[in-house]
User: Fold this.
Amino acid sequence: MAKNLPTDRLRLRPLIALALLPLLGGCGLVVLDPAGEVARQQGNLVMISTALMLLIILPVMALTVFFAWRYRASNTEATYKPDWDHSTQLELVIWAAPLLIIICLGALTWVGTHLLDPYRPLAAPKAEAPGAPVPDAEKPLEVQVVALDWKWLFIYPEQGIATVNEFAAPVDRPIRFRIASSSVMNSFYIPALAGQIYAMPGMETKLHGVFNQTGAFTGFSANYSGAGFSNMRFAAKSLERDAFDAWVAQAKGQGTPLDRATYLKLEKPSEKEPVRRFAQVEPNLFEQVVNLCVEPGKMCMHDMMAIDARGGMGRDGIYNVRDLAYDKFAARGTLPTLDTRYVAAICTTPMVPAIAPDPKPIDSAPLTGAGLSRVRQSTPSRTAMSDLPALPES
Assistant:
């Protein structure tokens, strides 16, 4: 009896696998069935590319079985040609079919890459009358995203609110994300809305998308960033216009102000951070995050670049340096200002958003890419050198 037990278990394995198949019905294929047009077109690219590649894979697998059966040793009726070594017709088929598929894949990839470029904004609905302005409710919704350790901060400059680990947007309204990070590189990804794009310190990336149906979804970081990475998730809500307005009003009524001091406390590493809402946001806070100068008295990158472009400060630049702890145990803002080391500010210049213009907006459907111009990536905010005060002589 003991000898038959392993054999019985082997026989039951296929039945166990079949019994587990119904459980897969609860899996949501959000990547292939998303709620946003951009993500849907990306899913279509995956399906079409897979189908094109199967045009080669399936015939090869079928012919492998066919030749193995047709020309088996026991089949005496099969043609036997031991000296056969070439067929022009067969060579044409073998090389022409993959070549055509590669051409199709290349054309599809080129068009999809340019059309679905994350930096390329979606076309907003046209005004009702020629020359009339587009209503504010139809313009792209700007959302400023900051990847913190280990949570997400969303700033809505138009609405004057901010949230932690909660993102909401009205359905059928284009969304324009401006994304940065406070310390290490992360990857911002809402599978139901659009593709993922990196969030990096000292840089600003962009992503455009739109929800075409309401629902509750999940966003997360797709790039490992430390101990709290697995819990770095946030709720992504697609709401009706009235429900979104009510959500904004609730944040304004219950939230607390978000200033630089509050941000520096929020920036400290923490895990499983609950949803938090802020009713007011300090102006240009996102630009200060991108320029790495949220700490009072620290020089912003756009000031530093402007000074370097004019030749630097000479020997006087040696004395405007303070301590700054910058490691995984003490990120920016986790230590008192006097105990940190950084380049101190010597002047105040206007903080302005990124000056790089967005590419020409396009309509995401149909999937065509003729006449699209090359996308130029944005650069961090910077001030014109003419606006900088004169530097002292060294």
